[in-house]
Amino acid sequence: MRISNLSKTYRLKSGEVRALNDVNMELPENGTVFILGKSGSGKTTLLNLLSGLDSADEGSVIEVGGKNIVTCSRAERDGYRNSHCGFVFQEYNLIPELDVKENVGLSLELQGNKDNKSAVENALKLVELEGYGNRKITELSGGQKQRVAIARAIVKDPKIVFADEPTGALDSDTGEMVMKLLKNISKDRLVIIVSHDKEFAEKYGDRIIELSDGKVISDGDGEYSAVEQKQAEFKKPKLPLKTAFKMGSSTFRAHPIRLVFTLLLSVMAFTLLGVAVSASLNSYENILYNAMIADGAEYSAVYGYNAPEPIDIVGAADVFGEENTFGVVRTDGIAANNPAPSVYDSILPHSFAVMTEQKAAVNRFTILGRLPTRGDELCITAFSADIIGRVIFGESEPESIVGKVLTVGDRDYTVVGIIDTRFDAVPFDGLKNTTELGGLAELYSITLECSVHNLMFVSELGECDLVVIKNTRAVTAYLRSNDRFRVYNATVQNAEKYTEQIKRIGTWSGVLAAVFGVFATLLLLNFLLQSFTDRYRSLGILKANGANTAGLFKVFFCEAAVISGIVFILSSIITVAACECMNAVFGIAFFGAYYFSLPLLFCAVAAIGLVGCVLPLRGIMRMTSIEVINRE
Ligand code: ADP
Ligand code: MG
């Protein structure tokens, strides 16, 4: 190692501090070099510069492995620490989130060695800590911690070990042991020890360099000339995901209350967002369709709207299927002499359609008698037969209608058959004894007018006035794509009301989501940023041991991923539950499209998580390791 013109100036608000002033020396490839000096003489600064933990002034040269680590790239300096340097600090600087064997194994992992079990065991054996692998850092004495630090430094077999007052916090016996260990490992590497203990230096040092006020005032072997070194390969550090995850998830245990509070508010905000999005995803057509399903509205009457030409029955049959489509022609209705005794019985058929054997079979309609074959024959439905029988003919048996002559408008028709369309009239039983025209009566008339249940069937028809269609999603989709048509059934009126309600729910949950969202986002970001500051020291140590920015990012990414994942999963579940609950309350599935809001939720949560781990990282990228460690 060749050091020339090495200077370091700290720029403070109160002025400049020249901690090192033009230091020149050449160091051997093995042996123990002691740096002595009073407090404040620049020893730590020197060590931090030589190990690439801190950046030197312009013009300084530290040549290691054929490279000047002062001017090389940040990535190369990370690589230098990773592959060449081991560290032993006065305050041990172990990572509390990891246990003993993980702390020791970390430097090997960073070098890309996954299988490090035996190497870690050997290193622990060397520092006489066999069997301590699973201990937590907090369960060790000072001397034991320092020996773990030495094990961590030597496990990767570095070319240089830097030790800053390694015995400063230890009693003299333990200190002696640590010194012996360091002396031992200096046989095949350079060990640079900073100390203010002259006795130790004289006992264990191969060379003693003394500093004062940032200058070398004595050097035991000042004339030493370093051997020219070959260009070394600095290994790019790699932090395994498992270790990053372990460090990343450790804050959850450290701040459970803050975590719970953050999660609670975030989940609330994102659930509201999910509900708002679900509500806005509901098109009128979607609401209508779901309302039709819920109301049991089997048929819709589709009629031309703003359209001068008659409705195109063939075109409609192409879209909805021949068997689901009934072209309808309105007539003047059945001539009734008897006044209807109730609302129920006032529903006499008014319209004609054509029924075929095939349509009847597909719709599972049963035919009593036969289908009409001539222009003066017709069939009626079983439902109409009951009313016509009682109101027109005074018969209680519907079957007795077959063979009778029915006057429709001014023409006479012979009834040749009764078609059972399986109409469920039970919901309208209340109308059997009432003449009041209430909501139920309205629903009743619309339901029948838009269905096949009270049509009359003839053998042939001319141009249709409207088309009765068996409801599918295609019906509402068809309307959406074709504004010439309007649909008419009992549910349409309700759907309009539902649309209003959903809009209101969407607006309110949207407003609440925005309000809670601001708080939740701030809280979530604050949590991530705070846990970042909590761990400056651990991160600095990680960086000192060779981890690069990508490695630190991984730690935060894991943390953000875990917390965002929890928020996403919980809000998704509650969003789905909330939408289902509202469906239950309204009695229809108008929050049917909520699953489309889940990907959107995911993106929102992921974006915040990403900001939460990128934001703090931007600051740390520009800092040196020592700045990160000392940040606390
Ligand atoms: P030693 O390790 O020998 O006690 P240091 O290298 O820590 O000495 O410090 C050398 C000088 O640089 C001291 O005057 C100290 O106040 C100053 N110094 C060290 N670190 C910083 C810093 N981060 N910012 C400003 N001044 C510093
Ligand atoms: Mg110091």
Concise overview:
The protein is an alpha/beta fold and 632 residues long. α10 crosses α20. The longest helix has 45 residues, at 490-534.
Structural summary, described in words:
The chain has 632 residues and is α/β, with parallel strands linked by helices. Helix content is 46%, strand content 18%. The chain is built from 21 helices and 20 strands. Strands 11, 12, 13, 14, 15, 16, 17, 18, 19 and 20 form a 10-stranded mixed β-sheet that branches. A 6-stranded mixed β-sheet has the order 6-7-8-3-9-10, sandwiched between helices. A 4-stranded antiparallel β-sheet has the order 2-1-4-5, with helices on one face. α10 runs antiparallel to α17 (490-534) and α11 (284-295) runs antiparallel to α16. The model has no long low-confidence stretch (mean pLDDT 86). The structure holds adenosine-5'-diphosphate (ADP) and magnesium ion (MG). The site of adenosine-5'-diphosphate has 12 residues, from β1, β2 and α1. Adenosine-5'-diphosphate binds next to β1, β2 and α1.
Q: How many strand units? A: 20
Low-confidence stretches: none
Sum up the overall morphology in one term: rod-shaped
Structural class: alpha/beta
Percent of sequence in beta strands: 15-25%
Helix residue percentage: 40-55%
Count, helices? 21
Main sheet overview:
10 strands, mixed
Distinct small-molecule ligands in the complex: adenosine-5'-diphosphate, magnesium ion
Question: Characteristics of this structure?
Answer:
single chain, 632 residues, alpha/beta, ten-stranded mixed sheet, six-stranded mixed sheet, 46% helix, 18% strand, rod-shaped, binds adenosine-5'-diphosphate, binds magnesium ion
